[in-house]
Amino acid sequence: MSMPTPSSAGAPAPEVIEIERALTRATYLISRTRQHERLMALAGVALDRAAVTVLRQIADSEPLRPGELAGRLAVEASHVTRQVQQLQKAGYVTRVPDRADRRARRVELTPAGREAVRRIREASRRGVQRTLADWSPEECRRLAALVRRLVDDFLVRADEEADPAVGPA
Predict the structure, then answer these.
(1) pTM for the complete prediction?
(2) Which of 61, 65, 55 has its CA nearest to residue 103?
(3) Per residue in 26-66, pLDDT tens?
(4) SS3 47
(5) Which residues of the chain have pLDDT under 70?
(6) Where does the HTH marR-type domain start and stop, copy by copy (predicted)?
(7) Cα-flanking dihedrals φ and ψ of residue 92, to 5°?
């Protein structure tokens, strides 16, 4: 069951238009300042959105060099440097020597950072759980699989756009 893919010259399929609109609206709703502030209040953590994104990425793949972290987040290294400094000042991360190259440093979570990530994720998951309360387990499983696939495909396309030598899969 594959969705028709529009040609570069043709108009996008109605499903593509509907999906793009829904994603735009969901992104807006999720990323509103008020929503972030509510999540941080529930988690008991005082960090801006960018710092939370960096903190969560470190938790998913620590320890990383700042350049690796920037690559995974698809942002400039200077952006990551500012966020890491904020997180380090707050006591959530520390810089440790890279075992493979003692001149380099990696960023890893402190115990306070692990606890902050746990609280942020717990508060976030409660919100998703409330949103999906009326969905059946099968609908939730299907949604999880489709969202995971969508994100994976977005990442592949982002890599292709970043590296013109990489062609479509």
Answers:
(1) 0.77
(2) 65
(3) 888 888 888 889 999 999 999 999 999 999 999 998 799 99
(4) coil
(5) 1-9, 162-169
(6) 16-152
(7) -90, -25
